[in-house]
Amino acid sequence: MSKKNPRVAVCGATGAVGREMLKVLEQRDFPCSEVIPMASSRSAGTRVPFRDQELTVVEMKEDSFEGIDLALFSAGGGTSRHFAPFAAKAGCVVVDNSSAWRMDPECPLVVPEVNPHDLDWHKGIIANPNCSTIQMMVALKPIHDEARIKRVVVSTYQAVSGTGQKAIVELENQVRRLMSGQPVVADVYPHQIAFNCLPHIDVFEENGYTKEEMKMVNETIKIMGDESIKVTATCVRVPVFYGHSESVNIETELKLTGDDCRALLARSPGITVVDYPEKLAYPMPVDAAGLDDTFVGRIREDETIENGLNLWVVSDNIRKGAALNTVQIAETLMERDLLRVP
Ligand code: A2P
User: Fold this and answer.
1) How many domains in the chain?
2) Is the per-residue pLDDT at 239 higher than 70?
3) Which of 80, 83, 244, 277 is the most exposed, having the fewest neighbouring CB atoms within 10 Å of its CB?
4) At a CB cut-off of 8 Å and minimum separation 6, what does 35 contact?
5) Residues known to be catalytic
6) By three-state DSSP, how is residue 231 classified?
7) What confidence score (pLDDT) does residue 3 get?
8) Span from the CA of 127 to the centroid of ligand 1 (angstroms)
9) Res. 51 pLDDT band, cuts 50 70 90
């Protein structure tokens, strides 16, 4: 690519993550000569805010990517699987937020604080990891580098915004109906989500785990580049609008005390440690919503094993878990002069 600022398409610009991508591009003053919001024919012609203007949404088609340098996708796996190859063929680098390309050996899976070097071998399509995996990787990478993580046991408490705009509306409606004594309607989730917890995210697989849980297992290995890390996960949807929380138990090869871990994380990129139990201060999704960092607290040694720690990890799933990480990948591509399809 020449040194001019790129033309950037936001694909899925009317969705929860797409809208946040536009916001993040604006807030970080991402260098672009033009931003083109794309979505399905259903919302072509509608307007989305960007900087001090409103941009008109255009329908995404196979030939929409001519002359576009970078496409940030968040339009669902099927849509990405279909359209991303057309974009890459037209010379447009794709950063995709869906699960479509994450485990494809031809596509890097990147958290910029963790494995920016994997961008060096991209072939046009780069995958953004699952939201729950991203925040866990930000917190665990410094620990892995220092003490080598052998095993992770994680339980998640995931916000409805991870399912998209429809789920945000469903939770709002269910709360309103229940508070006025009316029966709830569940369309997006198989059960009532208001005032409830669903130990079920994405579809069940043959081994009894959900696809979301297996994403955490498999994506961790790919991002860390270490097949020896064992991960087991339980993923739960909770009635929170924004911000995923995770209880993470780890076993390390080398000893790391709670104080060591706190100091290590406090000086690591993308992390804010909030761990003052005496002041009742710990990370919470209502505080993390709208912010960029991954917040870590409740850091304590697991007293049942020799080298173990417990952590509580919270981040805004729409920002670091999706839109922000995607834009950070794009920024890293620009810094490393990699914004071109080889
Ligand atoms: P649209 O508004 O036209 O349906 P969310 O995850 O919040 O539900 O958002 C999904 C995003 O993906 C929306 O912007 C949606 O656009 C877009 N999208 C879904 N299917 C397609 C498609 N076939 N082509 C282009 N965009 C799509």
Assistant:
1) 2
2) yes
3) 277
4) 8, 9, 10, 22, 25, 50, 55
5) 131, 244
6) strand
7) 65
8) 18
9) very high
